[in-house]
Design brief:
The complex is a heterodimer of chains A (337) and B (313). Chain A has 337 residues and is mostly helical. In chain A, 76% of the residues lie in helices and 0% in strands. Chain A has 14 helices and no strands. In chain A, 50% of the residues are buried. The model of chain A has no long low-confidence stretch (mean pLDDT 84). Chain B has 313 residues and is an alpha/beta fold. Helix content of chain B is 39%, strand content 12%. Chain B has 12 helices and 10 strands. In chain B, the strands form 3 sheets. A 4-stranded parallel sheet of chain B has the order 4-3-5-6, sandwiched between helices. Chain B has a 4-stranded parallel sheet with strand order 8-7-9-10. Classes of the chains: A mainly alpha (337), B alpha/beta (313). Chains A and B meet through helix 3 and helix 7 of A and helix 8 of B.
């Protein structure tokens, strides 16, 4: 087995283990043998498993583990994609204003949306907001600031993010009665995840991750240098659009169902690079696998460490991610810019 | 220097006044500013240190919805000129766009208040107002009923409505005792109090939690006592497994929740409270404040307990 295959096999095994652990462990004890025997293959409910436990497995844990996996995969893959096209190891999925756009969208939905439709309106508005934020940043970075350099794109993202956050803060301040809901959404939430969230996230994440996976070889070419890539006949500008659109789609889907979950898009791709080298042929698929596993396991900690209370998942990923961020920063040395 | 002298004099006068109405005639004739029996200037001990109220307040600004309710309940409503944007009870309070969370000292000062009452100290509100010569009285969220009573009595003293405040507190005590008496003896029903739609709740160590305890309810959030300083976020599967007999929704306004949205949550339909229709929407303002309407809140939860028991019998 080559080193590369070994890494992929390891990634798949870890994901399967994380998935099963996520299903079996939780604040409510459920006998693993009963749960597994029932779910694989999905058959008659064994006598040891109450109807309520069965509901907890199928309606709460299963969608939650799936959504955690999708969100982790989406954030990690788009983090890797952004890092490649911006040639900046510290780029993260929220770089181009996706987070600020999603936050504004969610706030608008909470404040002005029909209260009966919260469950759907908030994720959808966040999704649209994230895409609008990135679109705005991209348009601004390309036209307003002149040229197609990555710097102008990133600056466009910074400007758009500040602007959208300012609008969001203003609305929030006008309507402080909705403060609590907006904040609990921003902190990141998987505690209320159900199948609806899985349905919202699944199509975008699958499409986006597939696109990123298809262009993984081209990302290696960019890594060498933009001029070199152009001389090999690669349209760097076009590739960048494709990657930014795909990564933003994945990010928007993740943000819309899980709120803002920090650092996953940085920790996971960098860990993968340490493990399997920096070629995107490996970084991309492995980021998807380990990203999914990582978030499933962090969520497992979030709901069991202080059970029956939950720890907001956004807090935990930042807690684990911040020290790693410093490490990645030190490692990248002067190359970051 | 002068301040200290006046304060000292006031303390002496207060001491004399409290020595009783016996043989001695009043040392000073009642001044116009002590119509209700309070002698100004008045010295107070507050969470922010000592506070001197120079004269009977006539232009009060309240930045706390609870204090607003207390002030109007004790008959000091006509001394209140402005209340914050969250104050909405009783009807007709002079609501403004002043914010209690992000107070703007200049905006507050523009009402020319002679007293500001507030519940959250964002950092330096008290000292900023003091710098402008405006006395600021901090009455933070009460941790117990006794603290809430103390705040009502303090407002009574400050606004010169001592007798009314004493009556309000006495009436609250009587009403609450009566409510508790109707339900006491039968214990054991469990409940879940929901603060928002991500399942934040309250433990029995909080003000709200204590009220539930008084009517003999068992709080499922107490299992999570270690987390969240009295306000833990509960796991959905834990709530389903704990199977509460009653669910109280304090998130009808903030988060659009209702018995029907609760029943549609994944896995919640099988919870006893949902099956039997014992999901009780609460008026959030009443459930979150520690003012006179605590009695209404207790009535509501005691009524729900009665109904649940009647249905079960």
């Amino acid at each position: 087995m080559t080193r590369r295959t070994r890494a992929v096999v390891l990634g798949v095994v870890v994901l399967i283990v994380a998935f099963i652990a996520g299903l079996l462990v939780g604040p409510v004890p459920i006998a693993p043998a009963d749960a597994l025997g029932w779910l694989f293959p999905f058959g008659e409910r064994p006598p040891g498993l109450s109807e309520q436990q069965a509901t907890i497995l199928t309606d709460l844990r299963l969608p939650r583990v799936i959504v955690a996996g999708l969100v982790g995969a989406a954030l990690s893959a788009s983090g890797a994609g952004y890092q490649a096209v911006f040639r900046n190891p510290l780029a993260d999925p929220y770089l181009l204003g996706a987070a600020a756009g999603a936050g504004l969208g969610a706030t608008l939905a909470v404040v002005f949306g029909p209260s009966s439709a919260f469950a759907f309106a908030v994720p959808l508005a966040a999704f649209v907001g994230a895409l609008a934020g990135v679109g705005l940043a991209y348009g601004l970075g390309r036209s307003g600031l002149g040229g197609r350099s990555t710097t102008s794109l990133i600056l466009g993202g910074v400007a758009v993010a500040s602007f959208l956050t300012a609008i969001q803060t203003l609305i929030q301040q006008q309507r402080s009665d909705t403060l609590r809901q907006v904040y609990s959404w921003i902190l990141g939430r998987l505690g209320t995840t159900g199948w609806d969230d899985a349905r919202i996230a699944l199509p975008s994440v699958v499409i986006a991750v597939t696109i990123l996976w298809l262009v993984r070889r081209l990302l290696d070419v960019i890594e060498v240098g933009e001029l070199e890539a152009e001389s090999l006949g690669l349209h760097v500008g076009r590739l960048r659009i494709v990657v930014v659109v795909a990564a933003s789609l994945a990010t928007a889907a993740a943000v819309s169902v899980a709120g803002l979950i920090a650092f996953v898009g940085i920790i996971v791709p960098h860990t993968v690079r340490l493990l399997a080298g920096s070629s995107y042929r490996q970084v991309l698929p492995l980021s998807v696998l380990f990203g999914a596993s990582f978030l499933i396991l962090v969520d497992l900690v979030a709901r069991t460490a202080m059970a029956p209370a939950e720890i907001p998942i956004g807090v935990l990923t930042a807690f684990l991610g911040a020290p790693f961020f410093v490490f990645a920063l030190r490692r990248s040395g002067g190359r970051a810019a | 220097m002068f301040h200290g002298f006046v304060g000292g004099l006031a303390a002496v006068l207060l001491l004399l006044a409290s020595c009783g109405e016996s043989a001695m005639p009043p040392a000073v004739p009642a001044s116009p500013s002590s119509a209700g029996g309070v002698v100004y200037p008045l010295m107070l001990d507050t969470p922010n240190g000592p506070l001197t109220i120079e004269d009977r307040p006539q232009r009060i600004v309240s930045l706390s919805p609870t204090a607003t309710e207390m002030l109007f309940e004790i008959g000091a409503g006509d001394q209140v000129v402005a209340v914050d944007d969250q104050s909405n009870y009783p009807e007709g309070v002079p609501t403004t766009d002043l914010s209690g969370y992000e107070p703007n000292v200049e905006a507050i000062a523009s009402y020319e208040p002679d007293l500001v009452v507030y519940a959250t100290e964002p950092g330096d509100l008290g000292s900023s107002l003091e710098g402008l010569g405006i006395p600021a009285l901090l009455q933070p969220a009460a941790a117990t009923l006794e603290e809430a009573y103390g705040q009502i009595e303090q407002l009574g003293e400050v606004t010169d409505h001592v007798a009314e405040a004493t009556d309000v507190v006495a009436e609250m005590r009587t009403d609450i005792d009566a409510i508790v008496a109707t339900v006491s003896g039968d214990e054991g029903l469990t409940f879940y109090h929901e603060l928002d739609d991500t399942y934040y709740s309250v433990t029995s160590s909080t003000f709200t939690g204590q009220l539930y305890e008084m009517v003999g309810l068992v709080n499922i959030a107490d299992e999570a006592k270690g987390a969240g300083g009295g306000y833990p976020q509960l796991s959905a599967e834990y709530i389903i497994d704990a199977d509460p007999d009653l669910i109280f929704l304090a998130d009808t306004k903030c988060c659009g929740q209702s018995p029907s949205t609760v029943s549609r949550r994944p896995g919640w339909a099988g919870i006893s409270a949902v099956e039997r229709g014992d999901v009780i929407p609460l008026e959030e303002d009443v459930a979150q404040r520690w003012g006179p309407r605590v009695v209404e809140f207790l009535e509501r939860i005691a009524g729900a307990v009665d109904e649940a028991k009647a249905a079960a019998a």
